[in-house]
């Protein structure tokens, strides 16, 4: 198991490095000069060259890349803004802030949003999926599958404002959407995030309902499930012990991908509700051609996805002894 | 030829107190294409301690019948009519809870492919212990002892170690042994074996068949043995039921059915398979055509489109009227008893040399 | 050793078919090891599945050779190696005097059309999106062959030959039953007028009543068109019915090879004895069953770590120390007919008659039978 995790981690690092290279090259392939943006209307060639120099983009691309990599591991102190300890992604072109501390700063919002929504959509989605599978063919099943179908074709930017308009502005049932640090005030952390959680998880929950239902129904048709029934085990025992165990594999796989990408920033949700998370940061970085910030957000999101990929694979070993023992 | 009218061990009527009695069983499935008549009016009886072989090709309804006996069809998709009485208890109308008490306890099943029929997620030991704990109210420890005893009995080496192994760590033959051990955990009175050796190699098959026979001697269970292989059935069965298109077409003691068969389908099966000592210059005589669709089975006798002896029956009897299957030793065919005998002796037997 | 093999099979009295004087295909020391990768931290080859290990075989013009054995014995892999669907690890395949062991695609092209294959599963071996006509025609198109009268005419002739209605030219595979699909597979194999057909379990997926139809069709094809067959199957009775010569394989090796009569009535290798004894035959009276009874114990060992010396020794009742240290060569043992070769240090008597005492190696079975006897 340790070997496996070590090997996978090594692989993930390689992927991250390759990703950095690609991002670097793509950025410099862009027809836009970030210095031009910062230089403003009264720009002179001298000023431009000066900015180039301060940004460090006057050097050759491989050289810049090398400096960047070095910074990641040992830190740098060649910035005008001040020292930059490892892991150093540099300073934002746009805000002049240290990228890493910006990321750390924005992270709690994204984590709160992702974890809360994940809790909600896992319980609601899997619960209704299991219920639909258990009651297969009945009105309950049809209602749940039909509802899931409709909801999973919804969009956050549609549901979000709708929920806000109805629940906040019209009925005043909920507080304004707002991020408060959990350690500062848990109650307002909760009330401020309830609506984004609900909206984000609605769409996910619908997908999980459909997935849980179909994979349970598939498992219930497996021969070993039939054998368990033939031994006289009760329907619920077979359902929750035999069929559920087999359904876990696809569910865990999808969940790993979903939570990984949510932790990298739920761009649309954050934008819809004006939550200052990583997703917003990513949009800003692109908008301002902010290379250090862009690289930072991208690498962070990629690392999250890879991390959860490894966790999912490790989970397989716990779920399926065939994986563990081979 | 010996006289064919000798009363066989085959049952004659429903109320003879047979251990298992199936009467006019009909199983239909609703599909998008229409209604599949998987089993269409099947009756048979089984005495304690005896083995009934059910022979038929794919789609003959042999597996469906036995899943029905265990009550494993989803009532949402299957319509079941008729009567199944096990030791005085009616099963078709029985409640699910009642059936659960019987399954794995009084009646147990061995499936064809032990790789897919055992759960990959739990140890063999756990899967064996479960029914014993449930039905006999045994503790975990007692169930483990029993499981190890049964694993020893079916010839799993190092049963104490293998108890904690998963099915995928067993070889094919060993898996099927574990499956047999699981079926015998609660000492069932009825054992249904659905093609238990089809997925196995021939040398392993021989081991498993002998093992099943010897275990039956010891446990005294009645066995329903389902297979498509006449050779296998001749090693196992006391009585035989030949099924075609969801119906029984011939019934009787195994030796009579295979030694002096009376139905053209049974003749066809026997003369289409080569034997180790048959004359190699004798070409095989296949049954023409292919098995009928159960969505739309042929009228009258379901075998008539493939039957070589239809012309021997006067008129359109074969195409209009479904031949009944009499009680005891019988074949559902419109040929007269005399015709059946002469055709078999003159035309069929020479092919079996 | 292989010299012996290329001898035409001595036909027993029961085998009146004419012996084939000319060798079409020779296989010498054919080996296929599938590598297993693993290790840490860099994945490397840590072992190999020795699927086929030094197989010698020959097939005469128009001859049918049967390959029998249980799962994992390498019979299917051998078939795939001969058709070069797999690349051999070692050994030599000679077809009509030409070494095709490692022939390139281009070199292989003329040979490919002469060696065809029929697969086990008639459901997955036909492209469901192509019509029957297209399926049968495609080998001709790939090889650029334009038969007299055109391809379509040839396809219709082939359909007729395999017992299908030529009108069904434009139907799709799903419109046919399993037996009919296997006929389509046969027609496709015949499209290029092959000289050798490798039939890999061609009937084992079919119902009993349909099996005979396909066996008869293959026999007709062999007789009328003079096509040689390598007939791979696990059903010993069908192989006997179809093949003039039979090779028995066990764990990647040929343990015994010979003409039909020798293998089925005068076998020498203990494994052949066990295999024949295990075949369930329809025998109505117990007295009629005069065959010896041998029940092996356990399953076939893994081909990743096959036993040393003779591979059958772990399940053999005659095994001695010599069997573990020395691999028995495939040779003609005294008392064998010409062409009947056996790889065994301690061969059995050439008979399958009941030996008075059963050989029951399975411990559970032996224990139960002891109890019953008491």
From TrEMBL, chain A:
Transmembrane segments: 12-30, 111-134, 146-169, 189-208, 248-273, 293-319
Residues of the ABC transmembrane type-1 domain: 107-312
GO biological process, one term: transmembrane transport
UniProt GO cellular component terms: plasma membrane
Record keywords, A-Z: Cell membrane, Membrane, Transmembrane, Transmembrane helix, Transport
InterPro entries recorded: BPD_transp_1_N, MetI-like, MetI-like_sf
Gene3D superfamilies xrefs: MetI-like
Pfam family, one: BPD_transp_1_N
Main localization (coarse): membrane
Membrane topology: Multi-pass membrane protein
PROSITE patterns: ABC_TM1
Entry's localization field: Cell membrane
CDD domains named in the record: TM_PBP2
Family named by the database record: Belongs to the binding-protein-dependent transport system permease family.
Name of the protein in its database record: ABC transporter permease
Organism: Streptomyces galbus
UniProtKB/TrEMBL annotation, chain B:
GO cellular component: plasma membrane
Gene Ontology biological process terms in this record: peptide transport
InterPro entries, A to Z: AAA+_ATPase, ABC_Ni/Peptide_Import, ABC_transporter-like_ATP-bd, ABC_transporter-like_CS, Oligopep_ABC_C, P-loop_NTPase
Entry membrane topology: Peripheral membrane protein
UniProt xrefs under Pfam families: ABC_tran (PF00005), oligo_HPY (PF08352)
The keyword Membrane is assigned to this record: yes
Keywords noted in UniProt: ATP-binding, Cell membrane, Membrane, Nucleotide-binding, Transport
GO MF, one annotated term: ATP hydrolysis activity
This protein's record includes keyword Disulfide bond: no
Domain of life: Bacteria
Domain ABC transporter: 22-270
Protein's cellular compartments: Cell membrane
Family: Belongs to the ABC transporter superfamily.
Protein name according to UniProt: ABC transporter ATP-binding protein
Protein's organism: Streptomyces galbus
Lineage: Bacteria, Bacillati, Actinomycetota, Actinomycetes, Kitasatosporales
TrEMBL record, chain C:
One Pfam assignment: oligo_HPY
One GO term of the biological process aspect: peptide transport
GO MF, any single term: ATP hydrolysis activity
Domain of life: Bacteria
Residue ranges of the region described as Disordered: 1-22
InterPro entries: AAA+_ATPase, ABC_transp_ATP-bind, ABC_transporter-like_ATP-bd, ABC_transporter-like_CS, Oligopep_ABC_C, P-loop_NTPase
Keyword Cell membrane set for record: no
Family that this chain belongs to: Belongs to the ABC transporter superfamily.
Protein name (database record): Dipeptide ABC transporter ATP-binding protein
């Amino acid at each position: 198991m340790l070997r496996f995790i070590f090997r996978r981690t090594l692989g993930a690092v390689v992927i991250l490095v390759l990703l950095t290279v690609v991002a670097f090259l793509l950025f410099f392939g862009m027809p836009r000069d970030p210095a031009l943006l910062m230089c403003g209307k009264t720009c002179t060639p001298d000023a431009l060259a000066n900015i180039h120099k301060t940004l460090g983009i006057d050097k050759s691309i491989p050289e810049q890349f090398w400096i960047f990599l070095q910074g990641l591991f040992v830190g740098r102190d060649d910035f005008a803004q001040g020292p930059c300890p490892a892991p150093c992604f540099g300073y934002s072109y746009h805000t002049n802030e240290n990228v890493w501390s910006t990321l750390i700063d924005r992270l709690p919002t994204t984590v709160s949003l992702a974890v809360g929504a994940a809790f909600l959509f896992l319980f609601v989605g899997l619960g209704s999926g299991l219920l639909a599978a258990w009651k297969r063919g009945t009105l309950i099943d049809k209602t749940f599958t039909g509802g899931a179908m409709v909801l999973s074709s919804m969009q956050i930017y549609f549901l979000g404002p709708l929920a806000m308009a109805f629940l906040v502005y019209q009925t005043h049932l909920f507080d304004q959407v707002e991020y408060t640090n959990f350690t500062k005030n848990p109650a307002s952390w909760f009330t401020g995030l309830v609506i984004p959680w609900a909206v984000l998880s609605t769409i996910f929950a619908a997908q999980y309902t459909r997935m849980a239902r179909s994979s349970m129904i598939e498992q219930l048709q497996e021969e070993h499930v039939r054998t368990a029934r033939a031994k006289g085990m009760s329907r619920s025992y077979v359902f929750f012990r035999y069929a559920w165990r087999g359904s876990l594999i696809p569910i865990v796989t999808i969940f790993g991908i979903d939570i990984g990408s949510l932790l990298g920033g739920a761009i649309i949700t954050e934008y819809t509700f004006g939550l200052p998370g990583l997703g917003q940061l990513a949009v800003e970085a692109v908008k301002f051609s902010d290379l250090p910030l862009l690289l930072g957000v991208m690498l962070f999101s990629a690392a999250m996805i890879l991390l959860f990929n490894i966790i999912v694979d490790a989970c397989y070993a716990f779920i399926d002894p065939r994986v563990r023992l081979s | 030829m010996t006289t064919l009218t000798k009363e066989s061990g085959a049952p004659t009527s429903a109320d003879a107190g047979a251990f298992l009695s199936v009467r006019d069983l009909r199983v239909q499935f609703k599909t998008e294409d229409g209604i599949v008549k998987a089993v269409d009016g099947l009756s048979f009886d089984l005495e304690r301690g005896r083995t009934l072989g059910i022979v038929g090709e794919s789609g003959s309804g042999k597996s469906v019948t036995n899943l029905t006996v265990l009550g494993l069809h989803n009532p949402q998709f299957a319509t079941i009519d008729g009567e199944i009485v096990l030791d005085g208890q009616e099963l078709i109308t029985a409640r699910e809870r009642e059936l659960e008490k019987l399954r794995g306890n009084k009646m147990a099943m061995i499936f064809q492919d032990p790789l897919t029929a055992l759960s990959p997620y739990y140890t063999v030991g756990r899967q064996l212990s479960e029914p014993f704990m449930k039905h006999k109210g045994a503790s975990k420890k007692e169930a483990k002892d029993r499981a190890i005893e049964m694993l020893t009995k079916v010839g799993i080496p190092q049963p104490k170690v293998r108890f904690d192994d998963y099915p995928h760590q067993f070889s094919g033959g060993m898996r099927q042994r574990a499956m047999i051990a699981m079926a015998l955990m609660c000492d069932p009175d009825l054992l249904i074996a659905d093609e238990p050796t089809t997925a196995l190699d021939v040398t392993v098959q021989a081991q498993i068949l002998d093992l099943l026979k010897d275990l039956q001697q010891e446990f005294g269970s009645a066995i329903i043995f389902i297979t498509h292989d006449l050779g296998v059935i001749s090693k196992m069965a006391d009585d035989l039921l030949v099924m075609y298109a969801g119906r029984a077409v011939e019934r009787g003691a195994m030796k009579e059915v295979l030694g002096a068969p009376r139905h053209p389908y049974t003749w066809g099966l026997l003369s289409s398979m080569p034997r180790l000592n048959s004359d190699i210059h004798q070409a095989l005589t296949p049954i023409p055509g292919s098995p009928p669709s159960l969505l739309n089975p042929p009228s009258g006798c379901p075998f008539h489109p493939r039957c070589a002896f239809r012309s021997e029956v006067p008129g359109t009897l074969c195409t209009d009227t479904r031949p009944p299957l009499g009680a005891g030793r019988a074949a559902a065919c419109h040929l007269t008893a005399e015709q059946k005998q002469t055709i078999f002796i003159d035309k069929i037997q020479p092919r079996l040399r | 050793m292989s010299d012996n093999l290329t001898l035409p099979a001595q036909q027993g009295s029961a085998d009146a078919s004419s012996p084939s004087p000319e060798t079409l295909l020779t296989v010498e020391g054919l080996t296929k090891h599938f590598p297993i990768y693993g290790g840490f931290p860099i994945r490397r080859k840590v072992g190999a599945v020795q699927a086929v290990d030094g197989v010698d075989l020959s097939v005469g013009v128009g001859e049918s050779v049967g390959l029998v054995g249980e799962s994992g014995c390498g019979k299917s892999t051998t078939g795939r190696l001969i058709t070069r669907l797999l690349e051999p690890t070692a050994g030599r395949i000679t077809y009509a005097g030409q070494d095709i062991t490692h022939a390139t695609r281009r070199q292989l092209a003329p040979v490919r059309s002469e060696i065809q294959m029929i697969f086990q599963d008639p459901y997955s071996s036909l492209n469901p999106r192509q019509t029957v006509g297209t399926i049968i025609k495609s080998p001709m198109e790939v090889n650029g062959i334009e038969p007299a009268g055109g391809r379509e005419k040839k396809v219709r002739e082939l359909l007729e030959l395999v017992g299908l209605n030529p009108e069904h030219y434009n139907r799709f595979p799903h419109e046919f039953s399993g037996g009919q699909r296997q006929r389509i597979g046969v027609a496709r194999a015949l499209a290029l007028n092959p000289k050798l057909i490798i039939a890999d379990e061609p009937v084992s997926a079919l119902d009993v009543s349909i099996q005979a139809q396909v066996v008869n069709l293959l026999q007709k094809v062999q007789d009328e068109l003079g096509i040689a067959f390598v007939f791979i199957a696990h059903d010993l009775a069908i192989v006997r019915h179809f093949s003039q010569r039979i090779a028995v394989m066990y764990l990647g090796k040929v343990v015994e090879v010979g003409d039909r009569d020798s293998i089925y009535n005068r076998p020498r290798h203990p494994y052949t004895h066990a295999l024949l004894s295990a075949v369930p035959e329809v025998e109505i009276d117990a007295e009629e069953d005069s065959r010896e009874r041998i029940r092996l114990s356990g399953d076939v060992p893994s081909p990743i770590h096959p036993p040393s010396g003779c591979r059958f020794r772990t399940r053999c009742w005659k095994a001695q120390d010599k069997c573990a240290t020395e691999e028995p060569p495939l040779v003609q043992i005294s008392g064998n007919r010409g062409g009947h070769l056996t790889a065994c240090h301690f061969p059995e008597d050439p008979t399958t008659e009941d030996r008075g005492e059963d050989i029951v190696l399975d411990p559970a079975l032996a224990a139960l039978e002891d109890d019953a006897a008491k």
